Amino acid sequence: MWFRNLQIYRLPRNLEGSSEALDESLAKSALHPCGPTEPQCVGWVPPSRSGALVHAINRQWLVALGVEQRLLPTTIVRQLAADRAKTIEEAEGRRVGRKELRDLCEALTIELMPRAFIRRRTTFGWIDPINGWLVIDAGAQAKAEEFLEHLRKTVDGFPASLLKTALSPSSAMTGWVAGNEPPPGFTIDQDIELRSAENALIRYTRHSLEGKEIREHIGEGKVVTRLGMTWNDRISFVLDEKLQIKRLSFLDIIKEETDGLAENEDERFDLDFTLMTGELTHLLEALVTALGGEPEGRT
Protein backbone atom coordinates (compact mmCIF):
# COMPACT_ATOMS: atom_id res chain seq x y z
CA MET A 1 0.00 0.00 0.00
CA TRP A 2 2.13 2.84 -1.31
CA PHE A 3 0.66 5.96 -2.89
CA ARG A 4 2.29 7.23 -6.08
CA ASN A 5 0.60 10.62 -6.57
CA LEU A 6 -0.81 13.00 -3.99
CA GLN A 7 -3.75 15.36 -4.40
CA ILE A 8 -3.76 17.18 -1.07
CA TYR A 9 -6.78 18.50 0.80
CA ARG A 10 -7.17 20.02 4.23
CA LEU A 11 -9.59 18.91 6.95
CA PRO A 12 -10.13 20.38 10.41
CA ARG A 13 -7.67 18.95 12.90
CA ASN A 14 -9.16 16.43 15.32
CA LEU A 15 -12.02 15.76 12.93
CA GLU A 16 -15.18 14.67 14.69
CA GLY A 17 -16.59 11.22 14.02
CA SER A 18 -15.30 7.67 14.03
CA SER A 19 -14.17 5.20 11.42
CA GLU A 20 -17.18 3.04 12.30
CA ALA A 21 -19.58 5.91 11.59
CA LEU A 22 -17.83 6.64 8.30
CA ASP A 23 -18.00 2.97 7.35
CA GLU A 24 -21.76 2.97 7.93
CA SER A 25 -22.15 6.05 5.73
CA LEU A 26 -20.05 4.59 2.92
CA ALA A 27 -22.04 1.36 3.02
CA LYS A 28 -25.09 3.30 1.83
CA SER A 29 -23.21 4.17 -1.37
CA ALA A 30 -21.23 0.96 -1.89
CA LEU A 31 -20.41 0.00 -5.45
CA HIS A 32 -22.89 -2.33 -7.08
CA PRO A 33 -22.27 -4.15 -10.37
CA CYS A 34 -23.39 -2.20 -13.41
CA GLY A 35 -26.77 -3.20 -14.76
CA PRO A 36 -27.10 -4.30 -18.40
CA THR A 37 -27.82 -0.77 -19.64
CA GLU A 38 -25.76 1.26 -17.17
CA PRO A 39 -22.69 2.83 -18.82
CA GLN A 40 -20.98 3.55 -15.47
CA CYS A 41 -21.36 2.77 -11.77
CA VAL A 42 -19.51 4.50 -8.93
CA GLY A 43 -19.37 3.49 -5.29
CA TRP A 44 -17.21 2.61 -2.32
CA VAL A 45 -15.27 -0.66 -2.20
CA PRO A 46 -13.17 -2.30 0.53
CA PRO A 47 -9.61 -0.94 0.33
CA SER A 48 -8.17 -4.12 1.86
CA ARG A 49 -8.97 -7.79 2.29
CA SER A 50 -10.64 -7.09 5.63
CA GLY A 51 -13.87 -6.30 3.82
CA ALA A 52 -14.48 -3.07 5.74
CA LEU A 53 -15.09 0.06 3.70
CA VAL A 54 -12.86 2.03 6.08
CA HIS A 55 -9.55 0.37 6.87
CA ALA A 56 -8.51 1.98 10.17
CA ILE A 57 -5.06 1.61 11.71
CA ASN A 58 -3.78 3.88 14.50
CA ARG A 59 -6.55 6.40 13.79
CA GLN A 60 -5.53 6.62 10.15
CA TRP A 61 -8.24 5.71 7.66
CA LEU A 62 -7.99 4.27 4.17
CA VAL A 63 -11.00 4.34 1.83
CA ALA A 64 -11.41 3.42 -1.82
CA LEU A 65 -13.75 4.57 -4.58
CA GLY A 66 -14.54 1.96 -7.22
CA VAL A 67 -15.67 2.78 -10.75
CA GLU A 68 -17.05 0.34 -13.31
CA GLN A 69 -17.36 1.53 -16.90
CA ARG A 70 -18.82 -0.32 -19.86
CA LEU A 71 -16.53 0.20 -22.85
CA LEU A 72 -18.53 0.80 -26.00
CA PRO A 73 -16.47 2.84 -28.49
CA THR A 74 -18.52 5.39 -30.39
CA THR A 75 -16.61 4.56 -33.57
CA ILE A 76 -18.01 1.03 -33.51
CA VAL A 77 -21.54 2.26 -32.84
CA ARG A 78 -21.31 4.76 -35.70
CA GLN A 79 -19.95 2.15 -38.09
CA LEU A 80 -22.75 -0.31 -37.26
CA ALA A 81 -25.31 2.48 -37.56
CA ALA A 82 -23.91 3.40 -40.98
CA ASP A 83 -24.16 -0.24 -42.07
CA ARG A 84 -27.78 -0.42 -40.95
CA ALA A 85 -28.55 2.87 -42.65
CA LYS A 86 -27.10 1.51 -45.88
CA THR A 87 -29.24 -1.62 -45.59
CA ILE A 88 -32.36 0.53 -45.09
CA GLU A 89 -31.50 2.71 -48.08
CA GLU A 90 -31.00 -0.32 -50.32
CA ALA A 91 -34.14 -2.07 -49.10
CA GLU A 92 -36.46 0.95 -49.11
CA GLY A 93 -34.89 3.05 -51.83
CA ARG A 94 -34.63 6.18 -49.69
CA ARG A 95 -31.97 8.21 -47.92
CA VAL A 96 -31.55 7.93 -44.14
CA GLY A 97 -31.51 11.42 -42.62
CA ARG A 98 -29.39 12.74 -39.75
CA LYS A 99 -32.12 12.39 -37.12
CA GLU A 100 -32.84 8.80 -38.12
CA LEU A 101 -29.11 8.05 -38.06
CA ARG A 102 -28.89 9.47 -34.53
CA ASP A 103 -31.85 7.30 -33.53
CA LEU A 104 -30.06 4.27 -34.97
CA CYS A 105 -26.96 5.11 -32.91
CA GLU A 106 -29.03 5.42 -29.74
CA ALA A 107 -30.83 2.13 -30.40
CA LEU A 108 -27.55 0.34 -31.10
CA THR A 109 -26.02 1.73 -27.92
CA ILE A 110 -28.88 0.26 -25.87
CA GLU A 111 -28.65 -3.01 -27.80
CA LEU A 112 -24.89 -3.42 -27.43
CA MET A 113 -24.42 -2.07 -23.90
CA PRO A 114 -25.09 -5.41 -22.12
CA ARG A 115 -22.31 -7.04 -24.17
CA ALA A 116 -19.74 -4.28 -23.66
CA PHE A 117 -16.54 -5.02 -21.78
CA ILE A 118 -16.36 -3.66 -18.23
CA ARG A 119 -13.32 -1.73 -17.04
CA ARG A 120 -12.78 -1.38 -13.31
CA ARG A 121 -10.56 1.14 -11.54
CA THR A 122 -10.04 2.11 -7.93
CA THR A 123 -8.96 5.42 -6.40
CA PHE A 124 -7.60 5.34 -2.86
CA GLY A 125 -7.86 8.09 -0.30
CA TRP A 126 -6.16 8.48 3.07
CA ILE A 127 -7.92 10.41 5.82
CA ASP A 128 -5.92 11.66 8.79
CA PRO A 129 -8.57 12.92 11.23
CA ILE A 130 -5.96 13.92 13.82
CA ASN A 131 -3.72 16.19 11.75
CA GLY A 132 -6.40 17.16 9.26
CA TRP A 133 -5.42 15.64 5.92
CA LEU A 134 -7.29 14.10 3.05
CA VAL A 135 -4.81 12.77 0.51
CA ILE A 136 -6.02 11.11 -2.69
CA ASP A 137 -3.75 8.87 -4.74
CA ALA A 138 -4.51 10.24 -8.20
CA GLY A 139 -2.30 11.55 -10.95
CA ALA A 140 -5.02 13.79 -12.37
CA GLN A 141 -6.99 16.29 -10.35
CA ALA A 142 -10.17 15.23 -12.16
CA LYS A 143 -10.01 11.80 -10.52
CA ALA A 144 -9.41 13.38 -7.13
CA GLU A 145 -12.42 15.66 -7.62
CA GLU A 146 -14.49 12.63 -8.62
CA PHE A 147 -13.46 10.96 -5.35
CA LEU A 148 -14.20 14.06 -3.29
CA GLU A 149 -17.51 14.73 -5.02
CA HIS A 150 -18.72 11.22 -4.22
CA LEU A 151 -17.45 11.52 -0.64
CA ARG A 152 -19.42 14.74 -0.18
CA LYS A 153 -22.53 13.09 -1.58
CA THR A 154 -22.04 10.22 0.85
CA VAL A 155 -21.11 12.31 3.89
CA ASP A 156 -23.09 15.53 3.77
CA GLY A 157 -20.89 18.55 4.40
CA PHE A 158 -17.58 16.68 4.41
CA PRO A 159 -15.21 19.59 5.23
CA ALA A 160 -12.38 19.13 2.74
CA SER A 161 -10.70 21.97 0.84
CA LEU A 162 -7.61 22.19 -1.33
CA LEU A 163 -4.42 22.87 0.59
CA LYS A 164 -3.29 26.49 0.29
CA THR A 165 0.03 27.97 1.36
CA ALA A 166 1.34 31.49 1.87
CA LEU A 167 3.87 31.08 -0.96
CA SER A 168 2.87 29.72 -4.32
CA PRO A 169 4.78 26.53 -5.18
CA SER A 170 6.03 28.09 -8.41
CA SER A 171 7.56 31.18 -6.78
CA ALA A 172 9.06 29.11 -3.96
CA MET A 173 10.59 26.53 -6.31
CA THR A 174 11.98 29.27 -8.53
CA GLY A 175 13.67 30.84 -5.50
CA TRP A 176 15.10 27.53 -4.31
CA VAL A 177 16.64 26.77 -7.69
CA ALA A 178 17.86 30.33 -8.37
CA GLY A 179 19.65 30.48 -5.03
CA ASN A 180 20.65 26.81 -5.07
CA GLU A 181 19.21 26.70 -1.56
CA PRO A 182 16.45 24.17 -0.96
CA PRO A 183 14.43 24.42 2.27
CA PRO A 184 15.69 22.56 5.36
CA GLY A 185 15.36 18.80 5.09
CA PHE A 186 14.99 18.84 1.29
CA THR A 187 17.39 18.37 -1.58
CA ILE A 188 16.84 19.29 -5.22
CA ASP A 189 17.04 16.43 -7.70
CA GLN A 190 17.63 16.48 -11.46
CA ASP A 191 14.14 16.96 -12.94
CA ILE A 192 12.77 20.43 -13.65
CA GLU A 193 10.23 22.19 -15.84
CA LEU A 194 10.33 25.93 -16.50
CA ARG A 195 7.74 28.13 -18.21
CA SER A 196 8.01 31.56 -19.76
CA ALA A 197 5.40 34.31 -19.70
CA GLU A 198 4.46 33.19 -23.23
CA ASN A 199 3.85 29.65 -21.90
CA ALA A 200 6.89 28.19 -23.61
CA LEU A 201 8.04 25.12 -21.65
CA ILE A 202 11.53 23.78 -21.09
CA ARG A 203 12.02 20.41 -19.41
CA TYR A 204 15.18 18.79 -18.11
CA THR A 205 15.27 15.17 -16.98
CA ARG A 206 18.21 13.66 -15.11
CA HIS A 207 20.09 16.87 -15.72
CA SER A 208 22.31 18.66 -13.23
CA LEU A 209 20.64 21.84 -12.02
CA GLU A 210 23.73 23.30 -10.41
CA GLY A 211 25.16 25.03 -13.50
CA LYS A 212 24.41 28.54 -14.71
CA GLU A 213 22.21 27.28 -17.58
CA ILE A 214 19.11 26.92 -15.40
CA ARG A 215 19.72 30.23 -13.64
CA GLU A 216 19.99 31.97 -16.98
CA HIS A 217 16.52 30.73 -17.86
CA ILE A 218 15.24 32.10 -14.55
CA GLY A 219 17.06 35.38 -15.16
CA GLU A 220 15.20 35.65 -18.46
CA GLY A 221 11.91 35.52 -16.58
CA LYS A 222 11.04 31.84 -16.65
CA VAL A 223 9.55 30.28 -13.52
CA VAL A 224 9.79 26.73 -12.22
CA THR A 225 6.55 24.78 -12.61
CA ARG A 226 7.79 21.26 -11.70
CA LEU A 227 10.74 20.25 -9.58
CA GLY A 228 12.15 16.92 -8.49
CA MET A 229 13.02 16.83 -4.78
CA THR A 230 13.94 14.42 -2.00
CA TRP A 231 12.95 14.80 1.63
CA ASN A 232 15.29 13.59 4.39
CA ASP A 233 16.78 10.96 2.07
CA ARG A 234 13.55 9.01 2.56
CA ILE A 235 11.02 10.13 -0.03
CA SER A 236 11.57 11.46 -3.54
CA PHE A 237 8.88 13.21 -5.56
CA VAL A 238 8.06 15.86 -8.13
CA LEU A 239 6.27 18.98 -6.89
CA ASP A 240 4.27 21.02 -9.38
CA GLU A 241 2.85 24.52 -9.48
CA LYS A 242 -0.60 23.34 -8.36
CA LEU A 243 0.80 21.86 -5.14
CA GLN A 244 0.36 18.36 -6.46
CA ILE A 245 2.95 15.69 -5.74
CA LYS A 246 3.77 13.29 -8.57
CA ARG A 247 6.05 10.28 -8.96
CA LEU A 248 6.18 9.73 -5.22
CA SER A 249 8.77 7.12 -4.29
CA PHE A 250 9.53 5.78 -0.84
CA LEU A 251 13.22 4.98 -0.79
CA ASP A 252 14.45 1.55 0.17
CA ILE A 253 15.60 2.69 3.59
CA ILE A 254 11.94 3.13 4.60
CA LYS A 255 10.71 -0.25 3.43
CA GLU A 256 13.70 -2.01 4.98
CA GLU A 257 12.57 -0.81 8.42
CA THR A 258 9.70 -3.32 8.45
CA ASP A 259 11.41 -6.24 6.74
CA GLY A 260 10.67 -9.46 8.55
CA LEU A 261 8.06 -7.95 10.89
CA ALA A 262 4.98 -9.21 9.03
CA GLU A 263 3.88 -12.83 9.18
CA ASN A 264 1.28 -12.62 6.40
CA GLU A 265 -0.09 -10.34 3.69
CA ASP A 266 -2.62 -8.66 5.97
CA GLU A 267 0.05 -7.70 8.50
CA ARG A 268 2.28 -6.52 5.63
CA PHE A 269 -0.53 -4.29 4.39
CA ASP A 270 -1.07 -2.76 7.82
CA LEU A 271 2.64 -2.19 8.37
CA ASP A 272 3.05 -0.54 4.99
CA PHE A 273 0.02 1.68 5.54
CA THR A 274 1.21 2.70 8.99
CA LEU A 275 4.70 3.48 7.73
CA MET A 276 3.44 5.36 4.69
CA THR A 277 1.02 7.57 6.60
CA GLY A 278 3.59 8.34 9.29
CA GLU A 279 6.16 9.43 6.72
CA LEU A 280 3.67 11.43 4.68
CA THR A 281 2.42 13.27 7.75
CA HIS A 282 5.95 14.55 8.40
CA LEU A 283 6.58 15.29 4.72
CA LEU A 284 3.40 17.34 4.35
CA GLU A 285 4.10 19.38 7.46
CA ALA A 286 7.64 20.06 6.26
CA LEU A 287 6.43 21.02 2.81
CA VAL A 288 3.83 23.43 4.20
CA THR A 289 6.53 25.05 6.33
CA ALA A 290 8.81 25.35 3.29
CA LEU A 291 6.00 27.12 1.44
CA GLY A 292 5.57 29.73 4.16
CA GLY A 293 2.85 28.02 6.17
CA GLU A 294 -0.89 28.22 5.64
CA PRO A 295 -2.98 31.40 5.42
CA GLU A 296 -4.34 32.80 8.65
CA GLY A 297 -7.63 31.33 9.81
CA ARG A 298 -6.57 27.74 9.23
CA THR A 299 -8.22 25.57 11.93
List the SSEs and their pairings.
Blueprint: E1 7-10, H1 19-27, E2 40-45, E3 55-57, E4 60-71, H2 74-92, H3 98-112, E5 117-128, E6 133-136, H4 141-154, E7 161-162, H5 169-178, E8 186-195, E9 201-204, H6 212-219, E10 223-231, E11 235-240, E12 245-250, H7 252-255, H8 265-290
Query: Segments where pLDDT lies below 50 for 5+ residues?
Result: none
Helix percent reads: 25-40%
Shape field: globular
Q: State the end-to-end CA separation.
A: 29 Å
Question: Could you describe the 3D structure shown?
Answer:
The structure is a single chain. A hairpin with a 4-residue loop joins strand 11 (235-240) and strand 12. The strands form two sheets. Strands 1, 2, 3, 4, 5, 6 and 7 form a seven-stranded antiparallel β-sheet that branches. Strands 9-8-10-11-12 form a five-stranded antiparallel β-sheet. Helix 2 crosses helix 3. The mean pLDDT is 91. The protein is α+β, with helices and mostly antiparallel strands. Helix content is 35%, strand content 26%. It is globular. It is built from eight helices and twelve strands. The longest helix is centred in the last third of the chain and has 26 residues, at 265-290.
